[in-house]
Amino acid sequence: MSEKRLSLSPARFLSARRRHRSAGLVVLLFGLLAVGSAYAAFAPDNAVADNSAQSQQIEEGKKLFAVGCSSCHGLNAEGATNGEGRLAGPSLIGVGAAAVDFQVGTGRMPAVQPGAQIPEKPPTYTQAEIEALAAYVASLAPGPAVPAQESYDISKATDEQVTRGGELFRTNCTACHNFAGRGGALPNGRYAPSLMGVTERHIYEAMLTGPQQMPVFSDQVLQPQDKRDIIAYLKALETQKDPGGFGLGRLGPVSEGLWGWLVGIGLLVGVAVWIGAKGVKAKGAKAE
């Protein structure tokens, strides 16, 4: 048998070797090795640079969190209680980068003091610092990411989409924000804030994450296009003029009727009192 192999020509010998049942596995391993070598030769610099930049951003966010957020949310964002055993700040594990971008970007966090409602205020951190904080919290556990610009872009919204957005808003949001997005009172000292002047990005993030007492409108509840239509409706409201000159918060006939009663009837009562006083003086002058 060995003499027969030695008698084969080199070409026939190699052909016989390739037909061995392990030849396919050897070829596959060589192919993978070649692809891996090519990738290592051309791609590692960018990949390492991206990972390094992301790690540096997360580390910066961790430092900012330890200084400005850990007193309420815990050193590792696990939540914390105050001296009386009450919750000082909830756990942020799993809330995602979008929640951080909304809360810190609108100035609600860090909070000046705990309370039933954390009001909006000018942001404390720069945009780069907000992105670092968001990256750190996002690294703790999966959660909603900061939406891309095309997710909330309404520059090409049609009248039909604005109308549909109004229908969706009146169905899902008016119970708290009123039909014109001007906000409203809620129990226990809370309130739904006005949506006028809020950026498209923050409106989208609020629907995505459900800040404070607001419910979460995930993409399974309201699809991205639904969210864009609602944003388009709210932005259309911002440019809508009040025919009467004074919108009265657009709270409807109750506020308008109350204003008419207090001002209109008040003026009539004042005029009646003035006329009555003038009449008494006139009678007194005649009697003298």
Describe this structure in words.
The chain is mainly alpha-helical. Among the domains are: 94 residues, Cytochrome Bc1 Complex, Chain D, domain 2; 90 residues, Orthogonal Bundle (Cytochrome Bc1 Complex, Chain D, domain 2), CATH 1.10.760.10. It has 12 helices and 4 strands, in the order αααααββααααββααα. The strands form 2 sheets. A two-stranded antiparallel ribbon has the order 1-2. Strands 3-4 form a two-stranded antiparallel sheet. α4 packs across α7. The termini are far apart.
How would you summarize this macromolecular structure in one to three sentences?
The chain has helices at residues 2-7, 10-18, 23-42, 44-68, 70-73, 96-105, 127-140, 159-172, 174-177, 200-209, 224-238, 253-287, and strands at 80-81, 87-89, 184-185, 191-192. The chain has 288 residues and is mainly α.
